[in-house]
Amino acid sequence: MTEPVFIVGIDLGTTNSVVSYTDADIKAGKEPYIRIFEIPQLVGPGALEKKGILPSFILVPGKHDVPGESLVLPWDEANRIAVGEFARERGAEIPNRLVSSAKSWLCNTMVDRNKPILPWALHGDETGTDDNTSRFSPVEASAAILRHIRDAWDYSIAAGDERLKIENQDILLTVPASFDAVARELTVKAADMAGLSNITLLEEPQAAFYAWIESAGNRWREMVEKDDLVLVCDVGGGTCDFSLIRVSEKEGDLILERVAVGDHLLVGGENMDLALAYYISGKMAKKGCKLDAWQMRGLRHSCRKAKESLFANPDQDNYPLTILGRGSSLIGGAVKTELLRDEFRQVVLDGFFPVCESDAMPVEKQKAGIREQGLSYEADPAITRHIAKFISQIPTAVLFNGGVMKAAPLRNRIMDVISSWKKPKGSLSIRSIDTNDFDFAVARGAVYYGITRHGKGIRIRSGLNKSYYIGVAASVPAVPGMPAPIKALCVAPFGMEEGTRASIKEQEFVLVVGEEVKFDFLGSSSRRDDTFGTVIEEWEEDIEEITTIETVLDGNYGDVIPVTIEIKVTEIGTLEIWCVSKKGSRRWKLEFNVREQKSLGSL
Predict the structure, then answer these.
(1) Which pLDDT tens digit goes with each residue over 45-85?
(2) Nearest residue to 460 (alpha-carbon basis) of 429, 497, 508
(3) Has residue 394 got a pLDDT over 80?
(4) Which of the chain's termini has less CB crowding within 10 Å, N or C?
(5) Res 526: pLDDT
(6) Contact, 352 vs 366, CB < 8 A?
(7) Cα-flanking dihedrals φ and ψ of residue 414, to 5°?
């Protein structure tokens, strides 16, 4: 492989994706110039434009949903799907043909993420359509977005030069900090399907912090100090992502370390748009005007624009809304209303960022006997309560990121709430670390991280975002009707850094080869003190099941072989688990299984 010409950062977002890059040959004494790649994409039928943001939506139209030649791309005349702005806009009108939130589906353990299940709206579609050729698996959907980025880059920048093709560059691909080992592995698989095999994974909140360091230059050391604890609060269109970064000192230099990671929270700007749409429809229903599903989709789209306008213009008292009628006279049957600023404040500010105490907890999901399958959306939209649950120690500073955080009133509310938690009363308020880049920071920060891998810049110490365990059946006498209890064996502790190996040699296990075997793979984001070989007897409360490792290991049928366990955190940010024979040199790699969880008992 040729030496990379560029360092490329890809922010594969839930609702929007961004690409940035810089020269890989960084001259001594020269500051790298990080640029945003303007991505060619369809913005209307047959209309191609270059945009700094690629909406993470895929439109899979039916025969009569778009004009015949409207999806043609300069690099693919036979193209039959749309990725980007046109997909989002047209897909709002035909949601049964729209794939969205592919990234969040990658960490949904209740479905087979390699199975063609998207668009999810096709499940129970009123047209009765059940065409698997029009569906994507979550992995394939992520690959389709990355493939569009690859083709757009090769068309715009490489222009036939093999050295400049994106697959030959040093690529940093960002993932939510909350992604477990399986979701990261699937992200790597999606990138490989898109022809991007030379990638390294980076957590998004870290990328946002790197972007801040890059923009601050040498001044960053003046803006943080020893013992600072910085909360990175990333609220985007579809998700919330929290991380804590501690500032310490070693031999006179400031050291940065990621010390905590939050859960994957499906609440963000899209929830706010939907809440506003429901509020407006409820107000109209009181006046005798009931909206149908088609009109609600249009209203939700209008509420997104209203939200952006009211946040951007503090002096604007209202935003006019027009809802088209149904039937032959769409315009004539249009209904006009408005969203008042006080209503907007009540729904968004007080609904999603309420004032709360430091010991507040999010409302838990109601345990229904049966519920609809789909993404695991948060039952409680109150982001401030999710922050309260996440932090056990009050931060001294906050770095904001994500499109939603562009709104100053929302940043101010979060700062006011967290500052009120400081003890004792009257102590210094928490400070906000200034940033003016909410949409592009993650992609830019990914490039800066790539620069640090070339030996320049400031690096954040991080490692694994969870502690990982394997279920081990206890060796106890058999009891009729009772399975052997399962203990949780820690095989990879929190913070284990990329490129490191470790093995549990003081404990011996037995491995069955030649026939199908299954291992429970477990994880915990709260247990950060467990070490290699720690065995937890009672683990149901703070350790959760992630997936299974199910395989047939090479060997004679039924042989039982003494083994030790070896772990490797790869340079690209994934986890490998190996069983190593105590006698001889045989090694077996345990592969993650991501089939749908069996959530229902026997009937």
Answers:
(1) 999 999 999 999 999 998 889 987 899 999 999 999 999 99
(2) 497
(3) yes
(4) C
(5) 86
(6) no
(7) -60, -45
Closest CA to 399 of 453, 358, 462, 441: 441
Q: Among 170, 153, 177, which residue's Cα sits nearest to residue 452?
A: 170
What is the DSSP annotation of 511-564?
A: EE-SSEEEEEEEEESS--S--TT-EES--TTT-EEEEEEEEE-SSSTT-EEEEE
Instruction: Please report the sign of the dihedral spanned by the C-alpha atoms of residue 320, residue 321, residue 327, residue 333.
Output: negative
Six-digit token string for 318: 């209202």
pLDDT in tens, 15-52: 999 999 999 987 766 778 999 999 999 999 999 999 99
Domain limits, the chain: 6-201, 467-590
Exposed e or buried b per residue across 88-104, where buried means at least 16 C-beta atoms within 10 angstroms of its C-beta: bbbbbebbbbbbbbbbb
Pairing between strand 253-261 and 460-461?
Answer: parallel
| Angle between helix 204-216 and 441-452 (nearest 10) | 80
Q: Is 128 exposed, middle or buried (0-12, 13-18, 19+ CB in 10 A)?
A: exposed
pLDDT tens digits for range 334-360: 788 999 999 999 999 999 999 999 999
Q: Please, which contacts does 64-67 make with residues 24 or more away whose CB atoms are closer than 8 Å?
A: 65/90, 65/94, 65/97, 66/90
- 518 beta partners: 550
Q: How far apart are CA 293 and CA 202, in angstroms?
A: 39
Name 286's Cβ contacts closer than 8 Å, sequence gap at least 6. Answer: none
- Identify the CA nearest to 206 among candidates 457, 414, 35: 457
Task: With residue 279 as reference, give the H or E element that holds it.
Answer: helix 269-285
CB 9 within 8 A of CB 446: yes
Report CA Rg, the chain: 25
DSSP sequence for 403-458: GGGG-HHHHHHHHHHHHHT-SSTTSPPPEEPP---SSSHHHHHHHHHHHHTTT-S-
Residue the block writes with tokens 């609060």 = 233
* Class of the CATH domain delimited by 6-201: alpha beta
Q: Which residue pairs, CB below 8 angstroms and at least 24 apart, start in 315-324?
A: 316/341, 317/341, 319/344, 321/280, 323/284, 323/291, 323/295, 323/298, 323/299, 324/295, 324/298
Give CA separation, 564 vs 269, 411, 516, 574, in Å.
Answer: 47, 50, 19, 20
